[in-house]
Inverse folding.
């Protein structure tokens, strides 16, 4: 079981990191978007390894389904065959991007290193991550947050229509 | 498999995403890199939820997922409006309010 988990972890890590790098460096938006779909499915696999079945399902439906279709739809609607690529030489981003990424990686690596002392996964209860467990919390403790997020979705929908429509 | 390995993957994904946001100037690629960053933070949340056996981490991940959906919708609407105006998605050309 442990061996199986380790193999799954290595395969998913390889998939997630390679696809993320393809998203960043490929010039063709369609290929970037398909690599992003791969990345999202790999992360859903991580959720399954971590006993988050409900969120793994949501990840595939909402992210790999709805959001990816939206992105692909916009790319095809605007028929962008290749985007502008990286910043022109001499732009400040050409220097700052690697520096900030390195700083970011160093800070997070330090935090993980300091916090990893004796970190173990505890044996979780059997209903951890099930729909029942998440739903109970969502509709009791996090009820107001849940309502607020539905309001946010309505605002986003109205905003998207207003922004993208030529004339109301 | 121990928590820190998953956190390392999450940190690497976040770094790749942050690098991509700064490195690229195509608006759609930038949006996709933001999605990678949000997913990396979700992965960290769910790792902590499993590590401490607390469902709250998963609920935060759920909220972030909803937030990402809203962000993608608005972002893509802005890209469409921008493309109609400029015939390109280059963010370097958006310098009207730059002093």
């Amino acid at each position: 079981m442990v061996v199986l988990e380790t193999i799954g972890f290595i395969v998913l890590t390889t998939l997630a990191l390679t696809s993320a790098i393809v998203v960043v460096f490929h010039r063709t938006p369609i290929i970037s978007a398909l690599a992003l779909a791969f990345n999202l499915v790999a992360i859903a696999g991580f959720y399954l390894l971590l006993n988050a079945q409900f969120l793994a399902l949501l990840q595939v439906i909402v992210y790999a389904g709805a959001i990816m279709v939206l992105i692909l739809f916009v790319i095809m609607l605007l028929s962008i065959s290749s985007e502008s690529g990286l910043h022109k030489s001499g732009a400040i981003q050409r220097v700052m991007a690697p520096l900030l990424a390195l700083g970011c990686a160093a800070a997070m690596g330090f935090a993980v290193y300091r916090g990893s002392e004796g970190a173990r996964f505890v044996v979780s209860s059997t209903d951890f991550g099930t729909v029942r467990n998440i739903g109970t919390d969502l509709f009791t403790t996090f009820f107001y947050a849940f309502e607020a997020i539905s309001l946010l979705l309505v605002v986003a929908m109205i905003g998207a229509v207003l922004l993208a429509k030529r004339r109301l | 498999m121990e928590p820190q390995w998953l956190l390392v993957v999450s940190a690497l994904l976040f770094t790749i995403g942050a690098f991509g946001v700064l490195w690229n100037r195509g608006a759609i690629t930038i949006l996709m890199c933001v999605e990678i960053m949000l997913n990396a933070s979700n992965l960290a949340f769910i790792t902590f939820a499993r590590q401490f056996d607390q469902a709250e981490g998963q609920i935060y991940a759920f909220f972030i997922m909803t937030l990402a959906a809203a962000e993608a919708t608005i972002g893509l609407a802005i890209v469409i409006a921008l493309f109609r105006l400029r015939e390109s998605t280059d963010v370097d050309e958006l310098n009207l309010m730059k002093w």
Observations:
- The mean pLDDT of chain B is 89.
- The CA atoms of residues 21 and 30 of chain B lie 5 Å apart.
